[in-house]
Amino acid sequence: MSAGYQPKGRLGAIVHSLEETVIAVLMGLMTLVTFINVVLRYGFNSQLIWGLELTLVLFAWLVLFGIAYGFKIVSHLGVDALINLGGKSTRKWLGVAAATVCIVYAALLLKGAWDYWAPFAGLDATTGRWFPTGFANSRDQAWYETEQIPIPFAKDWLEATFNFGEEYEKLPRFIPYAMLPFAVALMLYRIVQLLVRILRGEIDTIIVSHEAEDAVDEAGADIEQSLANEPANEGTK
């Protein structure tokens, strides 16, 4: 999935493998739930009533988690026409500037993500317009539930911990919404890592553009070569 990225160290390889596994599992679950729903609908005139909502949640998780993963392996597309006009040193400092702007943006996004999610978990949002200056006494919204998704496990613990012992009929919203602050925090961490890599001279940009075009051209050339060899292979059989 990330041919151009090589993790460093055993721990880095484990984390990298775990991230790719999470992405694969999310995609697999989306496909599986959708497939089961299609079979039930057209074969048995039935459906998983919570299937569509679960698929939407998984898709949102995939997008949010994938953004952070894309920063790590430098796979986000960008326009580098002006960047390539400068020398190596110019590209490096433009990369530093771009990473710094992204860090500021991700920090603002993290505050917003926490402030949105925290009340659903019975926690306090932060004060301050741009950056957190403390915590406000937010209105508890932990009783909000998803529309159809059932609680797969730990129902009693969730009710006692987040809902003052009151019963949950469906999965509380703070669980699917938790991916928002987690993914944004991971995104911020990955952008900081990119900035460090740029300062060390390992890379000089946070985007991939002409490299992606080269990869597509290379893949196309491999396919053409494979097709060209097929007649020859058939003649030797």
Distance between the termini: 34 Å
Main sheet strand line-up: 1-2
Strand tally is 2
What structural class is derived from the secondary structure elements?
mainly alpha
- Spatial extent as radius of gyration: 23 Å
- Main sheet specs: 2 strands, antiparallel
Number of domains: 1
Determine the strand fraction and express it as a percent band: under 5%
Question: What is the string of SSEs from the N terminus onward?
Answer: HHHEEHHHH
Binned, the helix content reads 55-70%
Number of helices: 7
Enumerate the spans where pLDDT stays under 50 for 5 or more consecutive residues: none
Mean pLDDT: 86
Shape: flat
Notable characteristics:
two-stranded antiparallel sheet, 237 residues, flat, mainly alpha, 62% helix
Report on this structure.
This protein has 237 residues and is mostly helical. The protein has one domain (9-208). The protein is 62% helix and 2% strand. It has helices spanning 9-44, 51-72, 88-117, 155-162, 174-177, 179-199, 210-236, and strands spanning 126-127, 134-135. A two-stranded antiparallel ribbon has the order 1-2. The relative contact order is 0.12.
Short characterization:
This protein is mostly helical and 237 residues long. The protein has one domain.
